[in-house]
# Entry
Amino acid sequence: MRCEQVAVVNVFYETMSVQKTSEIPLYPWSSFIGTLGGLLGLYTGMSFVSVMEILEWIFDMALYGWRKPRHDEMGPKRRAILACEHSCHT
# Structure
């Protein structure tokens, strides 16, 4: 090795102190998992209640709502109201 190809580098620091940097998450994993579980429970609960209400409505319609009331099953007041509504529209 020849002497012309050697370089010497001198490094000088202003101060001889060390600064340590650390990162702390703004939103910890435990809070994230808890919030995610709460939201999923909320939306799943709401959709489950909605499905149950729709099933109840279909069940009620199957039992009571899809058949027309017969005149012999109605009381006299209800028959009079239906007769009045029918005559007013024709």
Summary: The longest helix spans residues 29-65. Residues 44-90 form one domain. The mean pLDDT is 79. The helical segments are 29-65, 76-89.
